[in-house]
Amino acid sequence: MKNTVSTLMSQKQSGDKITMLTAYDYTTAKIIDECGINSILVGDSLGMVMLGYENTLPVTMEDMIHHTAAVARGAKNAFIVADMPFLSYQTSVYDAVLNAGRLIKEGGANAVKLEGGAEVCEQIQAIVNASIPVVAHLGLTPQSVNVFGGFKVQGKSTKAAKKIIEDAIKIQEAGACALVLEGIPSKLAEIITKQLSIPTIGIGAGSSCDGQVLVYQDMLGLTTDHVPKFVKQFAAIRTAMCQGIEEYIRETKSGEFPSKEHTYQISEDILAELTSED
Ligand code: KIV
After folding, report:
1. C-beta of residue 194 within 8 angstroms of C-beta of residue 3
2. Which whole number is the average pLDDT over 135-151?
3. What is the mean pLDDT of residues 63-90?
4. Taking the C-alpha atoms of 156, 168, 99 and 4 in order, what is their torsion angle to the nearest 10 degrees?
5. How many whole angstroms separate alpha carbon 258 and alpha carbon 184?
6. I need a labelling partner for 227 at 20 to 30 A (CA). Which of 140, 217, 238, 248 fits?
7. Which residues are marked as active site?
8. Rounded to an integer, what distance in angstroms lies between the CA atom of residue 90 and that of residue 104?
């Protein structure tokens, strides 16, 4: 059954944890969807894990639409959330509504996600007024990497923690349907989760959130890049891929592959005609 805003909301109320993973392409989205995930995030993390950028800042609306549409073709039941890339909503309320609309119309997303608190409440309100669900994102918001001076845990001082709590309340009042909390102390995430009526989805924010999200390359062990402390690797897919690829190289070089089993045949009569002298 298709997961919707109401599914996530009733999961918060019943205590059934919300599961979310990123996906950026048709095949991966189909696998994740068929495993029974509640929600797929087409994160702008695609800039880093799919396109090889240093951070998420270079990601464009065209990148997001392209990847969201692929995910939407693969995922039938998951609630699909598409990230609004850097400068697609900060510039004006008009830009925010227009670009959110494109992710829904052209990308096939069910909701959009944007980063920030009080400063983007006008945008959240306007997007929601256009009948588009909005997921907010607070804490270690990667689009602010240059302000933070790196990917650092946020909300560790009283002032910073209070600001995140205030922002969480404001984005809920503005109409957000869920909140991603990234890279904050677990006790702070617990306070926010208890105060809000909308679900919180944590990444590096402890176990008290109403759900969890991870980047799939991290949790499946696909990357050799630095893996943050909050990531648990649930599988070793890179090792399995390397084994398969190395075996392919070996068998191709030795001539073992392709064997008869993987080769098309032609009838002996036709072969004789093809190879006869006249
Ligand atoms: O872009 C992304 O994948 C995200 C998650 C890290 C929450 O925003």
Report:
1. no
2. 96
3. 98
4. 120
5. 52
6. 248
7. 182
8. 18
Residue range 87-114, pLDDT digits in tens: 999 999 999 999 999 999 999 999 999 9
Q: What global pTM score does this model have?
A: 0.96
Tell me the domains of the chain and their CATH numbers: 5-235 (3.20.20.60), 240-275 (no CATH)
For residue 97 the two structure tokens come to 């509504």
User: Ligand 1 site: residues with CB under 6 angstroms?
Assistant: 22, 41, 43-45, 83, 180, 182, 203, 213, 215
Q: How far apart are CA 40 and CA 239, in angstroms?
A: 25
pLDDT at 219: 97
User: What gap in Å lies between CA 20 and CA 197, rounded to an integer?
Assistant: 19
Task: Return d(Cα 142, Cα 65) in angstroms, integer.
Answer: 19
The HSE-up count of residue 142 (CA atoms within 13 Å, CB side) is 22
Query: Which runs of consecutive H residues, i.e. helices, occur in 106-236?
Result: 121-129, 145-148, 158-174, 186-195, 216-219
Question: Which of 20, 22, 40, 59 has most ligand 1 atoms within 8 Å of its beta carbon, as the pocket-test mutant?
Answer: 22
Instruction: Give the confidence band of 223 by pLDDT, cuts at 50, 70, 90.
Output: confident
